[in-house]
Amino acid sequence: xxxxxxxxxxxxxxxxxxxxxxxxxxxxxxxxxxxxxxxxxxxxxxxxxxxxxxxxxxxxxxxxxxxxxxxxxxxxxxxxxxxxxxxxxxxxxxxxxxxxxxxxxxxxxxxxxxxxxxxxxxxxxxxxxxxxxxxxxxxxxxxxxxxxxxxxxxxxxxxxxxxxxxxxxxxxxxxxxxxxxxxxxxxxxxxxxxxxxxxxxxxxxxxxxxxxxxxxxxxxxxxxxxxxxxxxxxxxxxxxxxxxxxxxxxxxxxxxxxxxxxxxxxxxxxxxxxxxxxxxxxxxxxxxxxxxxxxxxxxxxxxxxxxxxxxxxxxxxxxxxxxxxxxxxxxxxxxxxxxxxxxxxxxxxxxxxxxxxxxxxxxxxxxxxxxxxxxxxxxxxxxxxxxxxxxxxxxxxxxxxxxxxx
Length: 406
Hints:
The protein has 406 residues and is mainly α.
C-alpha cells in the first residue's frame, strides 16, 4: 500500500499546541502513531505537495462576533442546565455552529476536555474566541459547583451587551447614511455638473456672481482632491483596524469621545453600563474582586475609564473600600459612587451594580431615541441646504442674464 504525507495538529501532555507531518497509508494510522507518542490529535489532513499545493487566502474577520458568542453562551447554558453532560453539550454545539472558526475552536475545547482538562482551562487556550470574562467566570463556577448558573449569567451578560450595541447602531445608522449621501451628492455635482455650467458661463461677457465663482473654484479643486481623498479613504479602511487599539491613538481619541458635544454623554453612559454589568456579573459568580477589576478594566472600551479602574484596583489592594476611590475620577457620577457605597455597606454590591447597569441601559435607550428624533430633521435640513445652495449658485448667472435681456 502506498504511503502519503499527512499534516497534523496535536496537543502534548502539557497542553501545548504542536504541528508537523507524518508518512502513513491512512489517517487512522497517523492517529494511532500520534496517540502512541502521547499526543492528543486535533486535526489530520493530507498534505498538498508539488503543483497541487493549496492556495490559502488571508481570512477576513477572524474573531467571533459578540452576537455569535451570546447565542453560543445561551445554548451552552441551556443544555448544561437541562442535565446534558459537558462533552455531549460541546459535541452538539460543534455540530450546529455555523461559524467555521468558532466550530474549530469548540472542537479543540471538546478535545481538551476529553483528555482531562477543565472547561475553563480549555477555553483559556482559545483567547481569540473566548474572552477572559467568560474564562474566569467559568472557572469560578467550576470551583463553586454551580457551573450551570454561571453559564446562564454569562449568556445574560452578553445578550444585554448585544442589545445595548444594537440600540447604538440603530440610532447612528440613519445619520451616517444621510451624511454619506450628502458627501457623494456634493462631490458628484462638483465633478460632473458644475463643469457643464462653467463651460456655458464662459461665453458670457460678464463677471459671474461670487457664489458661482466660488462653486467653480471648488469644482476645480474637487477634480484632483477627490481621487486623493478616495485613496486616503481606502488606506484608512485597511490601516485603521491595525492602529485603533494602539496606546497613542486611544490616549488621543478616548478622552475626546467622552467630552464630545451630544455624543460624549452617550459614550460615557455606555461605558458605565458595561463596567457595572461586567463587574456585577463577575462578583455574583464568585470571581475575586481584584481579579474582577483587572478583567473589567480591559473590557470598558475607553482608556479613561480603564485608568480609573486601575487606580481603584490599587486602592482596594491597599485595603480601601471600592467606592471611595471612584470619587477622584470625574467619569464616575456621584450617583454611581453613592449606590456602590450603599451596596458595599449592605453586602449586596453585585445587586447594586446590576441596578446601575439597568439604569444606564435605560438612559442609553432614551438618549438614542432623543438623538434620532433630533438628528433626522437636522440631517434632512442640512442635506437640503447644501444641495439647494449649490443649485442657486449655478442658476444665479442665468437669472442675471435674463435681467440683462429684459
